[in-house]
Amino acid sequence: MKRQKIVAGNWKMYKKLDESHALIAEVRGIVRDEYRGEGKVVLIPNFLALPSAVRLLEGTGLCVGAQNAHSEDQGAFTGEISASMLQAIGVQYCLVGHSERRQYFGETNEICANKVKSLIRLGIKPIFCIGETLDQRQNKRHFREIEEQIVQGLFHLDRKEFAQVIIAYEPIWAIGTGLSASSDQAQEIHAYIRKLIANQYTEEISSLIPILYGGSVKPENATSLFLQPDIDGGLIGGASLRARDFIDIVKAMR
Length: 254
Ligand code: PEP
What we know:
The chain is an alpha/beta fold. It is 45% helix and 14% strand.
């Protein structure tokens, strides 16, 4: 069995509803005209645009993801959206533990672990984000940090559950800064993640888990990153807001 390649566009808190609709339509049109590959393309707009994104992308092969989900199905959690609410409208993917959520909203590995469990129970694929700060890398603590996030955020899952996970390695110093990790730096961490998974589960499971790279991916660096043996695509922030750039990144998936 071959590993699934994925390019996902995280639109963050950008694009009002009409702007989201316009970008969805633009991406849908160019993907239809220009992309013949087998990789999955996932659009991750804000919550308001999710129902229409599901509708506009139905039957196109493009998928819809959410940026966050609460782990409880329902309850007195003002301002939150549950994984079961996302499931009810047909959302297929969901980010968990993006560094902006960890940094600004206090999301811990434990909170992430609960979200992942809930999403998998409901058949939504979690895109679990991990990454180190510049300080951690400079002090050679990046491997330890990555291991801790994976162990605490994912290793409570059994084998069957874990097989549903997608991992996105996003060095925090590379997110939105224009400073991408080099292909070698990214490959080194991706190979390390695969080793951790093989040790915890099996070689086979490890070989089948998609591991995406994120952090200032652009059309100019996507090909060299995606050619690395353990990099299975990308999680794209800024460049996913420009249809042309996003499609050029999608086309770098071989
Ligand atoms: C992100 O937010 O997940 C991201 C990778 O952003 P950017 O591509 O803008 O660095």
